[in-house]
UniProtKB/TrEMBL annotation:
Highest taxon listed in the record's lineage: Bacteria
Transmembrane listed as a keyword: yes
Keyword match Membrane: yes
Keywords recorded for this protein, A-Z: Membrane, Transmembrane, Transmembrane helix
Protein's name in the database: O-antigen ligase domain-containing protein
Bilayer-spanning residue ranges: 12-30, 37-55, 61-78, 90-115, 135-157, 164-184, 190-206, 213-233, 294-315, 327-347, 353-371
Stored InterPro entries: WaaL-like
Length: 379
């Protein structure tokens, strides 16, 4: 049911989310044992944001309840499944890998189906959802690729219990995802793939054997040589049409300002003091930042509660990474997931249109919290 929620077939994850909430509540003794400061901050934020959203529920009245209960439910589900693997770090890695991969399936189906039907010679970056046919903006569609775009970074360290066949499946998923990301012209997702790969290399290389490092760099060199000699990167190529259009529309100044986002962030900071209870979207549109868009809709109280929750979450990730320095496959995954999610949080509204992405983050933090509290520290 968790995977069905992440997959969201035919837009049914709203109802699956309600069912998951009920099942979590019915787990005997689970709530009492697993309520912590992170959950309380998240729950207070959710209720406050839902209350402000109810004054102008553009997405629909059902989202009042969804905003109020879904984040906390996914947070507790993270704890629930982390508890089921009983502290086995290899299983934690597999759990998070599977959850992240399932989360991307609907987007891959949507974009890759369009590529097979229409190719790359289509100007419109917005594509229909595979399940419902509803047109989804490219920015929202791109967010669902975030985790699978980190696959090369995740596979750098040796992951115990991950079969070779599964590694091949993950790499094929990544290749298909690259094709999809180029179709929707997502610079953010390509940046996430490159940056997380570099960060992972810097983290993992000193911690693994020379033999594995040599094999890894030899493999990278062969792949780069093969691509350089077989693939044309001319922006006039059909498969680069959507991406080339974005590069032509947004020059160096546009990229430096984050597509005009920095100006909106400055205005949002000014409105924190001038309009602390929020403001209309008509003023300058989305702030394209998780925290500032929450400030616009939910006012200063929701804003500071979200800051408190995310700060607590990032500190928990830091604690988990320091907990067992030898578990570098898990630590690498925690670093990569956190970095990639933060990169999207910084440049997109998230709760408006990408709520499932925030819910996945809550699930991920729930797993981290359980790992921190219930399993022994190993230096």
């Amino acid at each position: 049911m968790l995977f069905l929620y992440l997959l969201n077939p035919y837009g049914l994850n709203i109802y699956i989310g309600f069912l998951l909430t009920g099942l979590i509540i019915l787990q005997k003794g689970f709530l009492v044992k697993n309520i912590d400061i992170g959950f309380l901050l998240l729950f207070m934020f959710s209720l406050t944001y839902a209350a402000f959203f109810s004054f102008e529920p553009k997405a629909g009245n059902q989202y009042i309840i969804i905003y109020a209960i879904a984040p906390g439910t996914l947070y507790l589900l993270g704890k629930y499944f982390a508890d089921k693997v009983d502290g086995n770090r290899a299983n934690l890695v597999l759990l998070l890998l599977c959850a992240g991969s399932v989360f991307s399936i609907s987007a891959i189906l949507s974009v890759f189906t369009d590529i097979l039907q229409n190719g790359y010679n289509v100007v419109d970056r917005n594509l229909p959802n595979y399940w419902t046919g509803q047109i989804i903006p490219a920015t929202i569609m791109g967010a669902y690729f975030t985790i699978v775009m980190t696959i090369p970074a995740l596979l750098i360290p040796e992951i115990k219990k991950l079969p070779f066949v599964m590694k091949i499946v993950l790499l094929l998923t990544y290749i298909i995802s690259i094709a999809c990301v180029l179709r929707i012209g997502s610079r953010t997702q390509l940046s996430i793939s490159v940056i997380t790969l570099l960060i992972s290399l810097f983290y993992v290389m000193p911690r693994q054997s020379f033999k594995r490092n040599f094999f890894m760099f030899s493999l990278f060199a062969l792949i780069i040589f093969f691509i350089a000699n077989t693939v044309s990167f001319d922006l006039d190529q059909d498969w680069l049409s959507a991406f080339a259009g974005r590069m032509e529309d947004g020059g160096g100044e546009d990229i430096a300002s984050g597509g005009g986002r920095t100006e909106r962030w400055v205005k949002s900071m000014e409105n924190l003091f001038e309009k602390p209870l929020g403001w209309s979207e008509d003023e300058f549109g989305h702030a394209h930042n998780l925290w500032f868009d929450v400030l616009r809709i939910g006012g200063f109280l929701s804003f500071f509660l979200l800051i408190a929750f995310t700060t607590n979450a990032f500190l928990s990730v830091r604690k988990a990474i320091k907990k067992n320095k030898s578990a570098y496959a898990l630590n690498n995954l925690l670093i990569v997931y956190t970095l990639s999610i933060c990169m999207v949080f910084m440049v997109e509204p998230i709760l408006e249109g990408m709520f499932d992405f925030f819910a996945f983050f809550c699930f991920f933090i729930g797993v981290v919290k359980k790992y921190n509290t219930d399993y022994p520290v190993i230096d």
